[in-house]
Design goal:
Blueprint: E1 5-16, E2 19-30, E3 34-38, H1 45-53, E4 60-65, E5 68-69, E6 80-83, H2 95-105, H3 110-123, H4 139-152, E7 157-161, H5 169-186, E8 189-194, H6 197-203, E9 206-211, E10 214-219, H7 221-226, H8 231-236, E11 241-249, E12 252-255, E13 258-261, E14 271-277, E15 283-285, E16 292-301, E17 306-312, E18 315-321, E19 330-334, E20 341-344, H9 356-367
Parallel strand pairs: 3-8, 3-9, 6-7, 7-8
Antiparallel strand pairs: 1-2, 1-4, 4-5, 9-10, 11-12, 11-14, 12-13, 14-20, 15-19, 16-17, 16-19, 17-18
Helix pairs in contact: 2-3, 2-4, 3-4
The structure holds adenosine-5'-triphosphate (ATP) and magnesium ion.
Magnesium ion binds at residues 45-46.
């Protein structure tokens, strides 16, 4: 994989109706990467894609393609193709003509068109479907034709806006693997949008986590999971217990009324921090053997593990464990230094990471009445 930046977004800002949609976005995308924009609905993922595709002009900032400024280059002149969530195949054309469409517009020769259509259909595992009516295809097959059609134009960059959103879960998983294979085979840069964190983690070389028109973190799936930058990222990617802490000195943090050894350094002396502990990292032991002791308030079987909510002085922790506990049990929790991840305080501090609301909802569901003070 080359290390050159195929796309650079520099100080990009966009407002619609005086509402800030993207706020000073800076991002580069390397040639040949599978990059995913991940974030909640309305955070600006599609708008960012549209800026790269040339369908939205930013109020401020530059878009570079292979170091050249392309701010004013119209979409059809960019070496970029887009696949939308609704794949928009041409219903009056068969599979062959759908894939050939872009090449006909470019007035390519019949031989080249035929070879390319066959090559692309082979790529998406639909050889032999040339004469089929696109309306007779399943959702997954239509999506693959849309991919073949986009690839036939031999773009340098493919933009995919939630392309798997309309598919059922099983098909979606199959298509994730297939898309990843196609990306690796062609070496084309894929910029993929999703709000499904598992999809993002399993498919991407690089994940860009966005919220409220700002990039919160850019990194590999492992970086994002293991070293979230702030409470938003920690909460959005997987489950997290997030506690208020104080960094006493390098490698020593206090939270939940105790001091713990940790692997983090570089914070100020006695600096307030957010502490993240993943539910699957907590070891459950006898109450007297634990670093922290709590009362189990609810247990849900999740297939692979149990999800256990534990009340520790009013803060509700989530633990994921293959061993069952029972509501009302007192348990101890062991935290090793590498289970503890320290983050700087941010505007998201305090907003996430306590499972109280979660466990109250569960109580109401299970008992069919709201939780009350006495309980
Ligand atoms: N043309 C437009 N005019 C006005 N507001 C817009 C326009 N396009 C987008 N917005 C607003 O910009 C914000 C970001 O929209 P965008 O479509 O980029 O979000 P998204 O992250 O793709 O969300 P989703 O996951 O729901 O697709 C939203 O609040 C949206 O309403
Ligand atoms: Mg969108």
């Amino acid at each position: 994989m080359a290390d050159n930046k195929i796309i650079v977004l520099k100080d990009i800002s966009v407002s619609f109706d005086s509402e800030v949609i993207l706020n000073n976005l800076n991002l580069y995308i390397k040639d040949g990467e599978f990059v995913t924009f991940l974030g909640p609905s309305g955070c600006g993922k599609t708008t960012t894609l549209r800026i790269i595709g040339g369908f939205v002009t930013p109020d401020k900032g530059d878009v570079l393609f292979n170091t050249k400024k392309i701010n004013n280059l119209p979409p059809h002149k960019r070496e970029v193709n887009t696949i939308f969530q609704k794949y928009a195949l041409f219903p009056h054309l068969n599979v062959y003509e759908n894939v050939a469409f872009g090449m006909r517009v470019q007035k390519k020769g019949e031989n080249e068109i035929r070879n390319t259509v066959h090559e692309m259909l082979k790529m998406v595992n639909l050889s032999g479907y040339e004469n089929r009516n696109v309306n007779s295809l399943s959702g997954g097959q239509q999506q693959r034709i849309a991919i073949a059609r986009a690839l036939a134009n031999r773009p340098k960059v493919l933009l995919l806006d939630e392309p798997l959103g309309a598919l059922d879960l099983k098909l979606r998983k199959d298509m994730q693997v297939e898309l990843k294979n196609i990306q690796q085979k062609t070496g084309i840069t894929f910029i993929f949008v999703t709000h499904d964190q598992e999809e993002a983690l399993s498919m991407s070389d690089t994940v860009v986590v966005m919220d409220k028109g700002e990039i919160q973190q850019v990194g590999t799936p492992l970086d994002i999971y293991n070293e979230p930058k702030n409470a938003f990222v920690a909460d959005f990617i997987g489950e997290s217990n997030i506690l208020d802490g104080i960094m006493h000195e390098n490698y020593l943090v206090e939270f939940a009324g105790k001091k713990f050894d940790c692997l983090d350094c570089g914070f100020g002396k006695m600096e307030p921090v957010d502490v993240v502990i993943r539910p699957e990292d907590i070891e459950v032991v006898e109450p007297e053997k634990g670093h922290i002791c709590g009362l189990v308030t609810s247990v849900t079987f999740k297939g692979v593990h149990y999800e256990i909510i534990v009340d520790v002085n009013g803060f509700k922790w989530m633990i994921q464990s293959t061993e069952v506990q029972n509501p009302g049990d007192k348990i101890g929790m062991i935290l090793q230094p590498d289970d503890i991840h320290i983050m700087k305080k941010s505007k998201y501090s305090g907003a996430f990471g306590d499972y109280s609301a979660f466990s109250d909802e569960m109580y109401e569901e299970q008992h069919n009445k709201p939780i009350t003070e006495e309980e």
